[in-house]
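Progress narrative, work stream C.
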Amino acid sequence: MLHYILKKKLNLDPARDVKIVPLGDGPSILPALEKGVVDAAVLTTPTRLLANRMGFREMLDFDEMGIPYPYVGVSTLKVNVKKNPEITVRLVRTLMEGIQIFKTNKETSMAVMRKYLRGANDDILEETYHYFSAKIQRTPYPSADAVLTAIDMMSVQFPQAKAVDDNEIIDTSFVKQSESGISR
């Protein structure tokens, strides 16, 4: 994603204009930013909220740039779906039930986030909940625009990716099938 944005959106050469240092996940990146080991970092929520509270300024917001990106999704090989379609339906239904709980039961959602986002205070948890509750679709249909962006990103390194038909990648049938089994 970073290479794509630097090259396609900011007209920078990632190999020449910036030095990219892989540092791992958010909790690993934030101390490097704080100690001046790096000048900038790509952070996800809630780590970006912590960085803002520490006085760091947000330079770019990928969402605000209008770049649809499939950063959350469920993928598998077609052979797996053909071999076990009932497992795929159960997985999608479980995902949809989890989304429904997240969107309708804030107290439970906050408790789960508190468990897994160790060290995040209540304000950060609250902001994180509001951020994701606004972003997560109630019904998780795949975004064709996001898939097209991913294909475009991949084509920079693998030109043959441009020949990929997004209709061959996206299958909405399991979401449609699961929709009927989820109570609203």
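Work stream C, second folded protein:
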Amino acid sequence: MIANYHTHTFRCGHAEGGEADYAREAERVGLKILGMADHTPYDFFDIGPRNRPMRMKPEELPEYADSVRDLAKEYEGRMEILLGVEAEYYPKYFPRLLEMLRENKVQYMILGQHFLENEVDAPYCGRPWSDPAVLERYVAQSTEALQTRLFSYFAHPDLINFPGNDELYEREIRKLCRAAHDTQTPLEINILGLREGRNYPDERFWRIAGEEGNVAILGCDAHRPQYVSDPATEKRARELAERNGLPLLETLTLRQIG
């Protein structure tokens, strides 16, 4: 890999290391582009603070943005460092999120739809769900997100864990892959999930994506500095793409937020 656009920090509450730690390791292993995409804050202004340890707080966003921009200047000419976030699409709160990101001059978003609805009492999509309504809502909400054309790529789009009816899974996932194709949004093969043996990458998903003509990109989803590079798992991810006929992007064209 010469570029990784999916990198987290301690600010999300479940990763280790700061921005500088990831930058040092990325330069050491020879990356040319490091995209910081920590879990975005969400201003759940009408329901109070959320207790899930999965995202930075809104008041932490300016410090995060300044830290990444300072590193970009420090590494200029040696490695490109980009300021991004990984964000869910929550229709009720999305306009305010965009305001916060634009105010802090965030350069890009990647879509990571971990929860549904507006996150309040909503299911975590990575749990096993045999209820067709969960799969259908995941596809509908993710499709709506893709149609904004504001997300530079879709991280772990196969996170939805549906062990139910195969025919229903194929029908719904084909809809999602067509939406990604229509909006020219790359789909991420997630190296973290592959390394840890999670329910994603899901071979069923990637077979359908290949048939629908989708384009893929590798994402380290690094939650520790040493995982901005993982050659052994990267090799397996490339093999997955090859056997499913998926072209792989090595670098990304960013979609501007504002």
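Helices lie at 19-28, 61-74, 94-103, 132-147, 166-182, 191-196, 203-211, 231-243. No further action is required on this item.
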